[in-house]
Amino acid sequence: MRILVLSDIHANLDALNAVLADAGQFHIVWSLGDIVGYGPEPNQCIARLNEYEHLAVVGNHDWAVLGKIEMTEFNPDARRSNLWTREQLTPASRSYLEELSETRVEGDFTLVHGSPRDPVWEYLLSVDEAKLSFSYYDTAVCLVGHTHARVIFCAAADGGQCTASRAPDRVPIRLDNSRCIINPGAVGQPRDGDPRASYMLLDTELMTFEYRRVSYEVSETQRKMRAVGLPRSNRMRLALGW
Ligand code: ZN
Questions:
Q1: What does the alpha-carbon distance between residue 200 and residue 4 come to, in Å, rounded to a whole number?
Q2: How far is the CA of 237 from the centre of ligand 1 (A)?
Q3: 10 Å Cβ neighbour count for 39?
Q4: Which end of the chain is less congested by CB atoms within 10 angstroms, N or C?
Q5: How many angstroms separate the alpha carbon of residue 8 from the centre of ligand 1?
Q6: Are 70 and 23 in contact, with CB atoms under 8 Å apart?
Q7: For residue range 23-68, what is the model confidence (pLDDT) as tens digits?
Q8: Would you tell me how many other CB atoms lie within 10 Å of the CB of residue 93?
Q9: CA of 184 to the centre of ligand 1 (A)
Q10: What pTM does this model have?
């Protein structure tokens, strides 16, 4: 099965459409949370995802707009965009977000937004943080988002060591027998210095995955954000990939 793995769409429909056009054929979408927040088109992104067979887990921004996380947990601009998003949500979008679970297990894969230890909130930024995560899930691979940056953490067979690595674009990487935690990067707000939308394709028959990046019209998304009064800092960072 060919799976399109997306994370942190953040209501950026232009980025999501570019990814869907670039991905070619796939059987299903797996979404790793933060579908909404920051971007100008939350309802449209949920509707677009609903056009495809997909599985999704919840992110911290998805919970914040539902009122399940205190807004004080967010910086002022993130809070402003979450409050704006809350006002925009249609009843259908709201119930879609309400039904998302924190963790999903599909065959050899565990899906969470943050980490298997703390699915909605923990950021896996370092080897030390990743190392602690391996005992909190049972499958071979765990897919995470939340940091908006690609990374592959792998545990050594004896469980003692953990490594962090990156992989080039559009090159299939084999998932061997080691246990890995993989972040596909962000569709709607990359934070690794590259403003292009980041995503991943997974082939569960060949047990390979492939990173991909695709450009989209950042200025068009910024124009939409400006039109609805979303914070300037969140508009500007899209052009920088930060
Ligand atoms: Zn996010």
A1: 6
A2: 13
A3: 32
A4: N
A5: 5
A6: no
A7: 999 999 999 999 999 999 999 999 999 999 999 999 999 999 999 9
A8: 21
A9: 12
A10: 0.97
